[in-house]
Specification:
The chain is an alpha+beta fold and 139 residues long. 45% of the residues lie in helices and 23% in strands. It has a single domain, classed as Dynein light chain 2a, cytoplasmic (Beta-Lactamase, 2-Layer Sandwich), CATH 3.30.450.30. It has a 5-stranded antiparallel β-sheet, sandwiched between helices. It is globular, with a radius of gyration of 16 Å.
Length: 139
């Protein structure tokens, strides 16, 4: 039983993706932060594993890497919904989640393997501009 626990612990500690993928993700995060300095948080997430390849937050306690598996699950569930709706030729480009004070944008990569998560203050950010910035840095 201890071995099972150890394997799960090792799986959590194992970095996701190759070093090149992690470096590319870190460069994407840096570019988005420079273009949208008012952002709250940003992360590049592997959709299959739900693990963050790179993440950054400007808000203490807001941990985009911790929320990564949940954001990946949103994308996986929406893909299932598209299949249930008999829309096999459709492809998710992005998902916008609006709240009272924040907006979260999940932008899917062209290869459908990664997502770029962005959290912004609804009052401080033009969402059309934010979406354009994500597309510019993520395709």
């Amino acid at each position: 039983m201890a071995l099972s626990f150890l394997r799960r612990f090792q799986a959590l500690a194992t970095p996701v993706g190759t070093e090149a993928q992690r470096n590319e993700a870190a460069a994407t995060i840096k570019a988005v932060c420079q273009t949208l300095p008012e952002l709250l948080a940003v992360a590049v997430i592997d959709i299959e594993t739900g693990k963050a390849l790179a993440a950054h937050s400007n808000v203490p306690g807001m941990l985009p890497a911790k929320a990564a598996p949940y954001n990946a699950e949103v994308v996986r569930q929406k893909r299932q919904a598209l299949r249930a709706l008999s829309l096999p030729d459709e492809r998710i480009e992005d998902i916008l989640i609006t709240m009272r004070e924040q907006s979260h944008l999940l932008c899917i990569s062209q290869d459908d393997q990664r997502l770029l998560f962005l959290a912004v203050n609804t009052q401080d950010t033009n969402m059309a501009l934010a979406r354009s910035v994500l597309r510019m840095h993520f395709e």
